[in-house]
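Researcher: Predict the fold of exo-alpha-sialidase.
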Amino acid sequence: MRRRKAILLCFLAFMLVPISFAPIGSGPLSAAAAAQGEEPYFTNLDLFKGGTEGYHTFRIPSLLTTKSGTVLAFAEGRKNSAADNGDIDLVLRRSLDQGRTWQPLQVVCDAGPDTCGNPTPVQDESTGRIWLFVTQNYGPDTYGAIVNGTSRGVRTIWSVYSDDEGATWSEPVNRFSEVQDPGTRWDGTGPGIGIQLQQGPAKGRLLIPAIDRNIQSDDHGATWYQSGRLPAGLGEPTVAELSDGTLMRNDRLSSHQEIRRRGISTSRDQGATWSPISYDPVLLDPICEASLIRYEPADPSSRIVLFSNPADTMVRENMTVRVSYDDSQTWPTAKTVYKGPSAYSSLSVLPDGKAALLFEGGEYTPYDKIMFAVFNFAWFQTPEADLDDVQFSDGSLTPMFRGDITDYQLALYSGTEQLSVTPVTDNDAISIEVNGEPAEAGKPKTITLGGSEAIAIKARLGERTRSYTIHLERNRPVPELLLHWTFDQTEADGIPDTSGKGHTGLMSSGADLRPGLDGNALYLNGARANVQMTNVEDLHPEADNFTFSVWVNPEALVQQRHIIYWYGLAGKYPQWWCAVEKNGAVRMNLFGMPAGKEVGVATAGGLVKTGVWTHLTFVRDGSVNKIYVNGEWAATSVQYDGPSMNVTNRSTPPLLGYDKGTAANRDWLGSMDELRMYRYALNDADIRRLFGSLDETKPVTEAVTEPREPNGTNGWYTSDVTVTLSATDNLSGVARTEYRLNGGEWKAYRGPFAVTSEGENKLDYRSMDRAGQLEETRSLTLRIDKTAPSLTIEPDPAGMWPPNGKWVPVRAAVDAADGVSGVASVTLVSIMSSEAEGRMPEEDIREADFGTDDREFLLRAVRNGEGTGRVYTIEYKAADLAGNTASGTAAVTVRHDASPPPAELPGR
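Model: Structure tokens for exo-alpha-sialidase follow.
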């Protein structure tokens, strides 16, 4: 505990000093870390992994560090599937050394075939007792059935406790009558952790967050009751007591989910009443559980709060921890813990002051495993040397590349000897090496493989490095094309198979050919029109890998699901099918024997749109299914026992665009083109090439400037120019856009940039599409002159004497210069007299042609009898070609007397 106290003392010292916050590298946390001389620390290990310990999936993490330092990691152990209902146990692993080693898994709650979940523990620090609240329901009862009243039972809240740091647990107690209203059907605690109040009249109160309220005890758990109700529309809550005693709830939204932010409600009377919901603009949320904790709840002066969730508005990925130094009012510091798919999380503070995070994540889905990460505050201020992507000209990378994964397998075809490697990063400060040689981000680097077993890629940012190892596998057979329909023509017996395998397509029920991508396309009317595949013996998948690719263009997306292809029969029979959902998501489902299991995978919504051609590829690859959209990986299923899963069904032919289900109202409506099938899992590079194979048109890049037009004259700008580049490619899409200035190095375009150099700037720009076609270089000339010309004026003579009323010729030597655009004009503006109250004394000036470059004129040598004399002020204006102007004046003096003017006095 000494180290923890030392860190906290440093926190308090720095909290007294005004600090300017930045995304990473400032604030009390980094100051404290610097004061301690800490090196950045981060570890991450797999704690619960699906498919082990007798459980199909582990979900719903909850992390509690006890007062004596024991770390308790709770989770749901889901026996037979990843579903939220069924046979689900509440399991626990314990660590006695701050998470470095863990004791074996133990079961805290086993409800037989039913569901026990939603762990939410809290420790009573005065007694040491750990209370754990859970929910239970009958295994077959789904959320929908419970809510609509068709289930066998309802969801009830239970509690257990431990007096020995989680080693053993009491028998569960049903708390329904105490903490749930009589008519409650669906309910939930947390999940996450509870808190014990540290301030106010209710100091010592135990508090468990639950749907629409908190569950509380003021007698160390002897009895429990409900707090005041929160506004409706919240769920899966987390709660914290702020430094002034205010209770803050931070919830997932159950209504108004389109806001995609966290819902906040506060109580200033320790839970009796709650404020209306507000939405934190910083806390992005894909509608998922999150975690919120005070860093040191027992210290009233500490305003440091930690928050974790998958920081995205649409998908569950990018697990991020944020830090607030002002009781959650602002969140100036954030860093990604895990870049991949990720979902639920639970934060805690370890005895040595480090933070710990228990969270769901995986390579392919957010639910592959539950990980345990530990980090210190110096880690927050340290940028990582991560690459954004690494692309290969051939092969399939496993897992999909992510900057914080360092070890990969690249499967290549037999005999591959050369490979192009393209590292990608948005951070220009990162230097890259491939096999020890410098490499440039965004530029392919060709390497000869020889006998190499791996490729070494290193990214360096300052003193931080990240090394990636790409292990090579070069024994995959080249895939064989089994079916290819171009739909460009029909023959007497149907659509010809250009692969030569004889898989003729039989059109029926209104199927038609209409203009498509390149020639004709197949059109299906959404009302039983379909195409049947023939001679299908070699198309039976058995337990083998396969690839199905097709271009689609839906006319409408009106039903829940729009079938593209269906092999087999609907029901509990071997089958596989693919479809587009109503929301534009893409789905692939397999059902196989002998296990009789169904495996599905779906992408995020919005990837397929009506009236737009989209390329889809469906791949069965070993123990996972993959979906690619427009050549890019979009979704992968959880792993399953692929080698033994046989999806062959010889009793019915495969159909294109036809719904074999009982509803029979999900037929494809729209067009399809360029359909291919392989008895092989195509790799990433194959699919990118397949996607770009029809694209013979190069991308088009447009440049827009701000100001839109030159804001000077003669085609010159008189300010910096911001350039925005936008590229379009109607088929394969844009892979990258780049630019260079004045013949310099090409740079990757990552957003609007400013051109600031004066003079004539030549901007070159171009784009490449995903088919590898590079646009011819386009150019734009930007002439910038932000500087006014220089101007000096020397009249001759500069003084007149005597003031006898005679006309005196005056010649003005005017020197105007401009080093950028050049001088366009010099103009005589005015000649003013000091004795004419600023007016131009025409009777005292002759032959002055104002508004022209007149440099010779007559001034009368005259003055009033009183005063110090007369001063003629001569003004000229110079303009450059860009329209910048400069004005200058010079004086001709008619002195009061014969004494020399002050400027001519000795010593001046």
